[in-house]
Amino acid sequence: MNLLDPTVITFGIYLLAMLFIGWLGYRATTDLSDYILGGRSLGSFVTALSAGASDMSGWLLMGLPGAVYLSGLSEAWIAIGLTIGAYLNWRLVAARLRLYTERTNNALTLPDYLASRFEDGANVLRLVTTAVILVFFTIYCASGVVAGARLFESMFGLPYQTALWVGALCTIAYVFIGGFLAVSWTDTIQASLMITALILAPVVAYFAVTGELQAGQSLTEMIGAQKLDLMHNASVIGVVSLMAWGLGYFGQPHILVRFMAADSVASIPRARRIGMTWMVLCLGGAVAVGLVGIPYFAVHTQQAAGVQANAETVFIEIARQLFNPWIAGLLLAAILAAVMSTLSCQLLVCSSALTEDIYRVFLRKNATQRELVWVGRAMVFAIAVVAIVIAGNPNSRVLSMVSYAWAGFGAAFGPVILLSLFWRGMTRNGALAGIVVGAVTVVVWKQGGWLGLYEIVPGFVLGALAVVLVSKLGKQPSPAMLQRHDAVDAEMARLQA
Question: Coiled-coil ranges per the record (predicted)?
Fold first, then answer.
């Protein structure tokens, strides 16, 4: 590794900037609310971009462009589904969840919200929700650590085990130091980096290709009609499965917590407009990178070895070959940004669940705010170590579960969150049934692989049915629960008037 290489220097500057932001977050953190929710102080811009960055991992810059490069626009259905799902999440959930969590004992975490919403004195709901979050997110974190390690490995020629620790420690450092504020501020910078990269790369590649076309040649011909056909090799079940990814948004704790942290309900509409604009441009840019990569590497066959070996490197290869090394370093840092932004918020959500919902509730009810902040930091480190151990074997069977962790969260929490916000008749046992049925259905359906249907669809449907049936058959909500729900309804109606 050449330390004077422009790409290495750019990476180094980027990492130092993230650590500096972590230090600023540390200075602004005084209590647990600050550490795990930023003191509910995020403006619309930071709320929007941090929600987007925490959602979009390395898949945005590597997975999606690679899939489009190989198969064409038929892979874009997932991007369409995600866009619709994200919009509905902003529209239906964001403002109402921000308001509801404030009125339920100022809930700081998802388990805290559900326990307070349904007056769960026994804390069964809190424990089950925390357990689901920890299982899925520890695995998620491991996958993020592997993605970061692979990037450092390919960029700098580091051995995998060394790259594993370097990549992980870079993220752990600013989360450990600065908590939610550091994560949100770094997410905002990382989101800006990602959108810059995904606009620049396809535009420059497009002009590079069109400048080298022979007389009579066209880009559409070089790409091919099949790869420009949205329905090529697509089945109804296949399209439904890809579109259904959007359902997952309603149950992702690391996205929902961004809504809870907004400074007010009034800032949500502006945040939605900013967030959706960012998302559409990023997803469009990722699809464009994959499409323009087809004619670019068809013309530059001698430079196509990397892409032919692994289609997911199409963005990396375009950045390396078409840009000045300093600019390329910045663009490639966007991949690291995508990985770090997702990993950082996952670590923080796990830490929050352990600190607020286990340590404070069951072990130290009278713990000071300073103590809770340091316990939160310790939990970040502990979860990260577990994730690194799992990631030590990149071929570990556990990592294969990552493919349906999104579905697991979406099916376990999606129906529960939606119905808890809109249905006054929902009960604690209904919420418990929905979480368990949704999560179990995803796992069982994945093993069976029935109909080739994405497991989130049956998981979401059966989870919702379980909530409704168990709530209807059991004891009705208390007058206080009904009164609180009606108050939230009235406040939302007033705000939307």
Answer: none
